[in-house]
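Reply to dn_fold:

You asked what the input looked like. This is it:
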Amino acid sequence: MSGFTANDHAHMARALELAARGRYTAHPNPMVGCVLVRDGEVVGEGWHEKTGEPHAEINALADAGDARGATVYLTLEPCAHHGRTAPCADALVEAGVAEVVFAIADPFDQVDGRGEQILVAAGIPVKKGLMQEQAEALNRGFLSRVRRGRPFVRLKIAASLDGATAMASGESQWITGPAARADVQRLRAEAGAILTGIGTVIADDPSLTVRDPGIDTLGRQPLRAIIDSTLRMPRSSIMLSLEGETVVYATDVSARGELEAQGATVVEVAGNARVDLPSVLTDLGDRDVNVLLVEAGPTLSGALLEAELVDELVIYQSPHIMGSETRRMVATPGWLQLADRQPLDIVDVRRVGNDMRITARPGTRN
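and this is what came back:
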């Protein structure tokens, strides 16, 4: 954007780098970074690490000690409301900063321009829009929840080169190598919730937890969300004995007492034979889930794609051929012609161990 110098970009880039340090821990709050600069020198830095703890601006002000006359580079508009912490916009005014530059406005209804108004009313010049695209990409989960009322949905698929996700028997461990499986732990740590279907629960008895000791989530485990229309979930499922919450979405909740006795939360949603997926996403948004990671079988994966509820696909493709007696990536019974196909916009391709990781966004279908 015009009006910003190379130094402005460098300082905001650093603020974005700091913000990303909260990738595994800031949930459900946005990731925010702050850099204080005076006379061309960085005098303070900070980022938001965990809900209920100081925001990025407060940490940067503490790091500086004296921020009077400094320019503030901030990845998100400073908050203007009393939550678990005091308004950061007021703190910046009290610190006597000279100018505030932020990347994007905060769409949260208790902020949404009010932070900027506090600064302007105090006579502090404000500039906005610097590196906006990068800042929105960093917090696309938070922005999705606030703007759309539902999480950003990331569908993870592990497949062979010929598109198989399991043998016909259901055998699938392991299609990808250890590096790819470790990378999935990162995706889990970034997520507020992990979604799967009852078929996967019955077949694999998954834990759906972050188990990599090298990833510090400060003890937080993603919520486990299960699509189970008639509550067939085994009461002995391992996830029911693990730390964190398991929420089961059903249309027939007559057996909810048994499952809730094992520690699950059962939510009744609309639907006939199948759970209404948009209702599930709305409920997860109400539960402050920013990013939803889907690790499911072909039926649920296909249903989400068919309903145009997937925002991003992460496909780990392993260099082997599994043949014809296999299960495919997605089940889409109504796709019979080329016109039915789902186009993808590939945004990143890279090698992870001996596998390829393809990151793509669904394009517009015909």
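Residues 49 and 225 are 25 Å apart (CA to CA).
Hope that clears it up.
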